[in-house]
């Protein structure tokens, strides 16, 4: 590797910034979820890099050694559990591996694959985010002494949701076959749930197992309406 993050933090963590000196690699295809993680890292003192698929994550990991890797279990080019298994076997191992999903039942499989912890989407609590990472770090990488557990709720810019909706339309330009629609269904229903867009969750769920442009027409119309009204939901 040509550039590695040191196993020891460059700057010691503090009570107010408990992840100071660490680098987080977020393997996440949603811009909205990625923005939430970016804000949480910023509040916590950590640097963040993003990969939106398994292939991109593997390229990052050939060059950089993050302190923490947060992996979405549903990625466009395969299950995140594959990457978790790979990282769990590598020596030296990444310090902390955290899985994320909007499906609470996926936690057991993620932990069996080698994840240290699990974050259920939507990830909104800064305190929960920090605790999930800190509890798996060696004692010498945690803040000295007691630190406050914040109850701050992180709310990403709604424009990040707009980016995710536009991403779905771009995916549909490539076709309407079953694998594409299956991915869009789980991706969009998860993102829409995070922003409490119930109508979009229903529209995205309905296309699971379907094929063809007619099957997605109601969902596309709803996406276009959201984009035209600047997401006034």
UniProtKB/TrEMBL annotation:
Keywords: Phosphoprotein
PANTHER family, alphabetized: RESPONSE REGULATORY DOMAIN-CONTAINING PROTEIN, STRESS RESPONSE REGULATOR PROTEIN 1
Gene: kdpE
Keyword flag Phosphoprotein: yes
Classification lineage: Bacteria, Pseudomonadati, Pseudomonadota, Alphaproteobacteria, Rhodobacterales
SMART domains from the UniProt entry: REC
Organism the protein comes from: Roseovarius gaetbuli
Protein name per Swiss-Prot or TrEMBL: KDP operon transcriptional regulatory protein KdpE
Gene Ontology process terms (BP): phosphorelay signal transduction system
Keyword match Phosphoprotein: yes
CDD domains recorded: REC
Residue positions, PTM 4-aspartylphosphate: 72
InterPro entries, sorted: Bact_response_regulator, CheY-like_superfamily, Sig_transdc_resp-reg_receiver
Domain (Response regulatory): residue spans on this chain: 23-136
């Amino acid at each position: 590797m040509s550039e590695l993050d040191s196993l020891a933090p460059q700057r010691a963590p503090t009570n107010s910034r408990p992840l100071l000196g660490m680098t987080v690699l977020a393997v996440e295809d949603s811009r909205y979820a990625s923005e939430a993680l970016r804000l949480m890292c910023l509040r916590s003192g950590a640097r963040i890099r993003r990969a939106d698929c398994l292939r991109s994550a593997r390229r990052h990991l050939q060059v950089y050694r993050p302190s923490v890797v947060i992996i979405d279990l549903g990625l466009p080019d395969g299950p995140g559990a594959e990457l978790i298994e790979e990282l769990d076997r590598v020596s030296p191992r990444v310090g902390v591996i955290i899985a994320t999903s909007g499906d609470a039942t996926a936690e057991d499989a993620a932990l069996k694959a080698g994840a240290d912890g699990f974050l259920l989407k939507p990830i909104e609590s800064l305190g929960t985010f920090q605790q999930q990472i800190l509890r798996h770090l060696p004692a010498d990488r945690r803040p000295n002494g007691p630190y406050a557990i914040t109850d701050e709720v992180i709310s990403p810019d709604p424009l990040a949701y707009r980016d995710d909706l536009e991403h779905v339309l771009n995916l549909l330009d490539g076709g309407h076959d079953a694998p594409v629609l299956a991915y869009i269904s789980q991706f969009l229903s998860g993102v829409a749930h995070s922003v409490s867009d119930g109508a979009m969750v229903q529209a995205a769920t309905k296309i699971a197992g379907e094929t063809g442009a007619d099957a997605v027409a109601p969902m596309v119309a709803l996406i276009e309406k959201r984009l035209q009204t600047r997401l006034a939901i």
